[in-house]
Amino acid sequence: MRHLFRRIFFYLVAIWISVTLNFFIPRLAPGNPAQAMLTRLERRGPISPAAQKALEAAFGINTSDTIWVQYFKYLSNMLHGDFGISYVQYPVPVTSIIAQNIIWTIILGSVAVMISFILGCLFGIVMAWRRGSMIDTVLSPAMTFLSAIPYFWLALIILYFFGFTLNWFPFADGYDTTLDVGWSSDFIISAIYHAILPALTIVLSSIAGWMLVMRNSMITTLSEDYVLMAHAKGLTRRRVMFLYAARNAILPNVTGFALAIGSIVGGQLLTEIVFSYPGIGFSLLQAVQGQDYPLLQGIFLIIALAVLGANFIADLVYVALDPRVRLERSA
């Protein structure tokens, strides 16, 4: 329990540091995107003095507050879930943009990472168990070759081959735009159909990492005394392979899996761009191009919270999987 409180305190401090950096870093950049946004609105037509003051207050222009007063107002707004108003998509709130797009990124990324993690660990277990066999000789260099290809280039190859040449899959969007968004069977099938190529890109580009780490860890674990003891007790090969060797060999991949889950929000930026897939990564690109600081801050905060939350879960899972860690931390 003491260890749990220490970890919670550590992650709370990390969240505070992330939020603080999220506030100060955009303000160090040159220019005033809020003033530029106000100028663009004035070009469309005259703005009344009352409307201009309201916009200045919403964008934080010409405020007499010191930087520290703005900082504490920013913290207060964050605690209330107020990320501000988007400059590029004015007057849409940042929370609405993030809520609309993040669900696409989470579904695509989580499914692809889970498939990649499961397949990579299973391949690594089999390759280590049958070390030197044909599957170990062929699969290892083949997957390593795929992982060496930049994933955005791999996405272009997959899009050209399966989308343009064979015309098996669509080129863009996350669903058939002629359908209404909802939980209908037609929409769900369309969304799955449009997500196949982006998911395939993520799986092929990341499966080799899981596989090789699992294989090397499995080879080391197979030489441990408790594995030899399990063999001596006459346990079945499947039980020794999964319950004794694989359970301990998978521990290094647990932390990597948590990092992969945490980086889903911002880790597939180029994939979403190549496939024009709606998601938080594509929104991040638009925010950078338009100097949309409120949207940038909101996305960066979501990414930081996702990574920290995933690492915290990984700490808990690691303790549950490895009894040695529980004993050492309770001593």
From TrEMBL:
Family statement: Belongs to the binding-protein-dependent transport system permease family.
Name of this protein: Peptide ABC transporter permease
Source organism superkingdom: Bacteria
Organism of origin: Dictyobacter aurantiacus
Keywords, sorted A to Z: Membrane, Transmembrane, Transmembrane helix, Transport
Coiled coil (UniProt feature): none
Principal location: membrane
UniProt cross-references to Pfam families, sorted A to Z: BPD_transp_1
UniProt record, GO biological process: transmembrane transport
Keyword DNA repair assigned: no
GO cellular component, one term: plasma membrane
Bilayer-crossing regions: 9-29, 102-129, 150-171, 191-213, 249-275, 295-321
Upper lineage: Bacteria, Bacillati, Chloroflexota, Ktedonobacteria, Ktedonobacterales
Record bears the keyword Transmembrane: yes
Membrane-topology descriptor: Multi-pass membrane protein
Domain ABC transmembrane type-1, residue spans: 102-314
